[in-house]
Amino acid sequence: MTPATIAVIDGVPKVGLDGRDLERIALDESVIKVSVRDLGLAMTANPLPLDKQLDPALHDQVLNEALAAADEENVRGKAVTPFPLAYMQRATEGKSVEVNLDVARGNIALAAEIATAWAALAAGVGDA
């Protein structure tokens, strides 16, 4: 559970998202950014277009296999994150890495847009 994470999913505001909700934010184009003014933060969801996403069925299958393999190999602690990532890279023949890089590139571009708009607002410039 991630208690400080807030999103609107299927039109319903949710506070404290579990792994399934966080995965949905990453994979679903219908989840839009939510401003969290009380905390002085903004959370954005910037999903990839469907044609750039990893097929959801393949993602779920490989993730479940990776988690089962991690459990079988008694992977614990800090190794839990890199293990399934490496497993997914091998099982998807690198496609998962390309998807993650596309997500990072999109997030960097969006962050630049947000920072530019925020700076313009702070300076009282334009309609940002």
Characteristic terms for this protein:
128 residues, two-stranded antiparallel ribbon, alpha+beta, two-stranded antiparallel sheet, 51% helix, 2 domains, elongated
Describe the structure.
With 128 residues, this protein is of the alpha+beta class. It folds into two domains: 1-47, no CATH class; 49-128. The protein is built from four helices and four strands; from the N terminus they run ββαββααα. It has helices spanning 19-27, 56-72, 82-91, 95-123; strands at 2-9, 12-17, 34-36, 41-43. The strands form two sheets. A two-stranded antiparallel ribbon has the order 1-2. Strands 3-4 form a two-stranded antiparallel sheet. The chain is elongated and about 55 Å long. The mean pLDDT is 79.
The percentage of residues in β strands lies in 15-25%
Helices and strands, in order, run as EEHEEHHH
Main β-sheet, spatial strand arrangement: 1-2
What general outline do the C-alpha atoms trace? elongated
- First-last Cα distance: 34 Å
- Please give the share of residues in helix: 40-55%
Radius of gyration: 17 Å
Number of helices: 4
Query: How is the main sheet built?
Result: 2 strands, antiparallel
Count of folded domains:
2
Name the average pLDDT: 79
